[in-house]
Amino acid sequence: MTTTTPYPPDPQAPHNELPGRIMAREMAEQPAVLRRILSQGAPAIREVAEQIAARAPRFVLLTARGTSDNAALYAKYLLEIRLGLPCGLTSMSTTTAYGARPDLTDVLVITVSQSGGSPDLVASTRAAREAGAITLAVTNNPDSPLAGVSEYHLDIMAGPERALPATKTYTASLLTLYLFAEGLRGGTGAPAKVLPDLAERLLARQHEVRTLAARYRFAERMVITSRGYGYPTAKEAALKLMETSYIPALAYSGADLLHGPLAMVDNVSPVIAVVTDGKGGEALRPVLDRLRGRGADLVVIGPRHQVEQASAGFVLPTEEVAEELQPILEILPLQLLAYEVTIARGQDPDAPRALAKVTETR
């Protein structure tokens, strides 16, 4: 069963705010949030990582819903590629609905949740801890029920997020998970120090995104694809577009796109490709060739040379940041795109219909 709990109104918010003003303000806060994590949160993240590394977990299970699930998928790529730790994304209903109790001795269970309040996340984490798991909660609320039932907690330090579409909590979760993964392997996370300034520069290019958004004002369907580290970005971008503009947006791994869904792409089909500069982008290259061959309306978010071969795109400064950090920047123009498309369609991205800030799934 799923119920929704409205987020408390912001007493500071003016009553006559224009549509999308809250989401716009929170997107603009992201560079400051990234700086806060790097300057204030990093020591605590490293300490937790060192304590967990000393316990030598043999496997990692990641648990989340919605936007946080896409952050968890990013963590899966990080932990498997950079640490060689096998990871899985959990199905919470196996414990909450079916009552399964697997042996989780020496397994690290990471639960990612903005609010830390969803009953199924709390129940599955409690069950995991009782089954012998090392439990870590990654939330924006250190006083949440989820933080309370977990052995360890990481605060993503994003501050209150009032718009229903999660923006700053997503990028804050990604950076927190990156620093945690680096801490597990004894790293300092120093390469992430460039992110706040780069994020500021990207968000200042909103006029470019507004031009792209005009392509999708009357779109009836969209496909978003990527591979490797970019795949969580594709899934999060699709979620943002669906929950704000109500455009059905389908996210596929490039490999999966070739196994059937490519048949629905034709010369009027809008496709967005998130191209990381690295091995994921190299693996996506045959997919891009197939999309061009089908005459798809292809927009690329990524390196300049890939954007120049597409119908249009948004150039990312990929040469300034490692592939595993690019998702923290890739999502920014796509958040702006969801915002601009929604405004162009005459809707309010701050308050999508039928949604609430805290979704209580049981």
Short structural description:
With 362 residues, the chain is an alpha/beta fold. It has 14 helices and 12 strands. Helix 3 runs antiparallel to helix 10 and helix 10 (231-245) packs parallel to helix 14 (326-344).
Describe the 3D structure.
There is one protein chain. The chain has 362 residues and is an alpha/beta fold. The protein has 2 domains: 2-194 and 356-361, Glucose-6-phosphate isomerase like protein, domain 1 (Rossmann fold), CATH 3.40.50; 205-344, Rossmann fold (3-Layer(aba) Sandwich). Helix content is 45%, strand content 16%. It contains 14 helices and 12 strands. It has helices at 21-28, 30-53, 66-83, 93-96, 119-130, 145-149, 168-184, 195-203, 206-213, 231-245, 254-258, 279-293, 304-307, 326-344, and strands at residues 2-5, 59-64, 87-89, 107-113, 134-139, 152-155, 222-226, 249-253, 270-274, 297-302, 312-315, 358-361. Helix 2 runs parallel beside helix 7 and helix 9 packs across helix 14. The chain is globular, with a radius of gyration of 20 Å.
